[in-house]
Amino acid sequence: MRRYETFIIIDPDFSDEERSPVFEKVKDLIQQEKCLLIMLDEWGDRRLAYEIKKKVRGYYVRLDYCGTGKLVNEMERFFRIDDRVLKYMTVLLDKDADIELIKEEMAKAEVKETEPDQNKPNIEQDASDINVSETAENETTKTTESE
Fold this sequence. Notes:
By secondary structure, the chain is an alpha+beta fold. The protein is built from four helices and four strands. The longest helix has 24 residues, at 123-146.
């Protein structure tokens, strides 16, 4: 199976409720073809580099998925027909993607997102350590100056 990345620019005049059927249709197409959706990343409303269909802003969405050429053709046909989609572009990332490896990476990413950050340094503790060391340096400097 191949790994693809598709960028979609949706008309920003549509609300979240009006945009969601586009995402649902994409998810349905991927499930029908027995493919794998790795990530659906909504970048949000951004300024376009140039006008598209008399619009200066667009709602950007990035899809990362593994699938077949048939899936890509079907998705692009849907994007051409749907009036909410201003522009789209699909790029082939990997000709021979390892599905099992990708699923493991996805599982690891989910675990990292769900567990709390225990590796984060405690800012208050670090600040108190700094103050103690600064105080010790100041006291050492004062004693050497007075001698």
